[in-house]
Specification:
Radius of gyration: 22 Å
Structural class: alpha/beta
CATH class of the largest domain: Alpha Beta
CATH superfamily of the largest domain: P-loop containing nucleotide triphosphate hydrolases
Number of domains: 2
CATH topology of the largest domain: Rossmann fold
Number of helices: 13
Largest sheet: 8 strands, mixed
Distance between the termini: 42 Å
Oligomer: single chain
Number of strands: 25
Strand content: 25-35%
Helix content: 25-40%
C-alpha cells in the first residue's frame, strides 16, 4: 500500500491534556503498521517524549511541527518531506485543541489550519454523559478554518455509558469513529517534565502492541484512513544561513542516553543535509565524544536523576575538557547546561561534581517550574542567525555567575525575561531549547 508520493495525514487532538491522545496515536500507528501501511508521525509543539512513543509504535521516524516557532513555509516543507513515501501520517496535538503559547498562538488548531488537515478528536468520556454533545459542538464551531473529521470516545465505562454518549452525539453531524473502554492498565507513568521515557517502561513492546490491538478492536480504522487528507507536495526549504540552524561543526558529537535524550530530528536532518557528520556517545556509560569532533552537543534530558553516576564519569569529563582544549564548540541545552557547570545538586540536597567548563551550579533541591516559549537573541560563537525561537521547561535553578549570558529572551507576549545561560568563548549553554530560526525577525 506504499504511496510513492505523500502520506495521507490526520491530526489527533483533544479538549485538554490527559484525554488519551498519546495512547490513541501510538495505538493508531501500531494498528496501521500491522495492516501493512508505512507510517510517519509528528508531534505538535516542542515536546520530545511523545514522539519517541510514536516512533516505537512503528512510525519510520518522527518530527516536531511547532506552529509557534516555525512559519507556515517551514511547517509545510517539513511535513511534506517527512511524509514522503509513507502511506499514513499521524500528527499528535499538544494540550487542548486551542491551547498554545501565552499569546494564544501556536495551537494544534493553528497547525491544522496551516496544513489543511482534518482533526480526529479524542474525548475522555469517563465523567461525561449527555454534556459530551455540547462539548463537541463548542469545539467544532469555535473556528471556521478547521474541521473535526471524527470523534473517538475514550475511557467509556460500560455498554450503558456508551449508549448514552451515542444518543447525545446524534445531534452532532460528526461521525463517531471509535469507542474505547476504560483500561486502567493502559497508562503511561509521568514525572516532573512529562511522561517517562519509553525505555523506562518494562515490556514497552508489549504495551505498544496492546495499544494497537485496543485501537484496532474498538475503532473503525477504515473510516479514520478515509478521513485523512493527502499532504500536498511542497518545495523543500532551501538551506541558507537565515533559514535553518546551521551545523555546529563539520563533525558533531552528540550525547545520547537517558540523561541526554532531548534532540530534535529536524536539527539532525538540517545538519546532515548541510554536509555535516554526526556521531553519538553515552556519558552515562562514561564514553567520550569522538576525538575528531569539532563540535559537541549536550542535549536536555534528566541529568538530575543520574547525578552520582555522572559525577563518576571521569572519561566523559576528560573528553569534554580535551574537546575544549582543541577548540571544539561545546553547546549544552537545559540538562546539558546543568552538566557543563561546576556542581549539580539533586532533590536530596547532595552536590555532584560536573564538568566545570562553565562557573554555575544548578539545583533541583527545591523544584520550581519554569515553562514557556521564548524569543531568543544572541551574539555568540553559535553559527546561527541572531534571532531564534525556543522554549524553556525546567524545575532546577542556576546560581549567578560572572560570565556573559548566552541569550537575551522575551516570552510569547514580548515581555522581557531574565537573561539566560553563560558563554565562555566556544563553550556555551543555557536552559533554552532552541527549536528553529526566527525567520521573520532575521529577514
Amino acid at each position: 500500500m506504499n504511496n510513492p508520493d505523500y502520506a495521507k495525514a490526520i491530526i489527533v487532538a483533544a479538549p485538554g491534556s490527559g484525554s488519551g491522545k498519546t495512547i490513541f496515536s501510538m495505538g493508531l500507528i501500531a494498528a496501521m503498521k500491522a495492516r501493512g501501511l508505512i507510517c510517519a508521525a509528528a508531534k505538535t509543539g516542542p515536546d520530545y517524549i511523545d514522539g519517541a512513543y510514536l516512533g516505537l509504535a512503528g512510525a519510520a521516524s518522527t518530527i516536531n511541527l511547532d506552529p509557534w516557532s516555525m512559519d507556515k513555509q517551514r511547517l509545510l516543507s517539513l511535513g511534506a518531506t517527512h511524509a514522503k513515501n509513507a502511506d499514513f501520517m499521524a500528527i499528535e496535538g499538544v494540550m487542548g485543541l486551542f491551547d498554545g503559547a501565552v499569546d494564544g498562538t501556536g495551537s494544534t488548531a493553528d497547525l491544522a489550519a496551516m496544513m489543511q488537515l482534518p482533526i480526529i478528536f479524542v474525548i475522555d468520556a469517563q465523567r461525561q454523559s449527555h454534556s459530551v454533545a455540547a462539548l463537541v459542538a463548542g469545539f467544532s464551531n469555535w473556528r471556521s478554518d478547521i474541521s473535526i473529521g471524527g470523534l473517538i470516545l475514550n475511557n467509556v465505562a460500560s455498554p450503558r455509558h456508551e449508549k448514552i454518549l451515542r444518543t447525545a452525539l446524534k445531534a452532532i453531524d460528526i461521525p463517531l469513529l471509535g469507542v474505547i473502554p476504560r483500561q486502567p492498565d493502559m497508562q503511561i507513568p509521568s514525572r516532573h517534565l512529562g511522561l517517562v521515557l519509553p525505555g523506562e517502561i518494562d515490556e514497552i513492546e508489549d504495551f505498544i502492541s496492546r495499544a494497537g490491538q485496543l485501537v484496532e478492536k474498538h475503532c473503525n480504522l477504515d473510516k479514520v484512513f478515509a478521513r485523512a487528507q493527502p499532504l500536498a507536495p511542497f518545495p523543500v526549504l532551501q538551506s541558507t544561513s537565515q533559514q535553518k540552524l546551521s551545523p555546529l561543526g563539520q563533525h558533531i558529537a552528540i550525547a545520547c542516553d537517558r540523561a541526554f535524550a532531548f534532540c530534535y530530528s529536524h536539527w539532525l536532518n538540517d545538519w546532515k543535509g548541510a554536509g555535516a557528520s554526526v556521531s553519538f556517545f553515552s556519558p552515562l556509560a562514561n564514553e567520550t565524544p569522538s576525538d575528531d569532533a569539532d563540535a559537541v552537543f549536550l542535549p536536555g534530558g534528566y541529568p538530575e536523576l543520574f547525578g552520582e553516576q555522572l559525577a563518576l564519569a571521569d572519561r566523559f569529563f576528560k573528553g569534554l575538557a580535551d574537546a575544549a582544549k582543541r577548540g571544539a564548540l561545546i553547546y549544552g541545552e537545559c540538562g546539558g547546561y546543568m552538566v557543563l557547570g561546576k556542581f549539580l545538586k539533586d532533590r536530596e540536597g547532595k552536590s555532584h561534581k560536573m564538568a566545570a567548563l562553565l562557573p554555575h551550579t544548578t539545583s533541583i533541591e527545591r523544584p520550581r517550574r519554569i515553562l514557556g516559549y521564548r524569543n531568543l537573541s544572541h551574539n555568540s560563537a553559535l553559527p546561527w542567525p541572531k534571532h531564534l525561537k525556543g522554549h524553556e521547561f525546567h524545575y532546577s535553578t542556576s546560581s549567578p555567575h560572572s560570565l556573559g549570558a548566552l541569550f537575551q529572551a522575551t516570552d510569547a507576549l514580548g515581555e522581557i525575561q531574565p537573561a539566560m545561560g553563560a558563554m565562555n568563548g566556544k563553550i556555551l549553554g543555557s536552559y533554552a531549547h532552541v527549536i528553529d530560526v526566527d525567520r521573520e525577525t532575521n529577514s
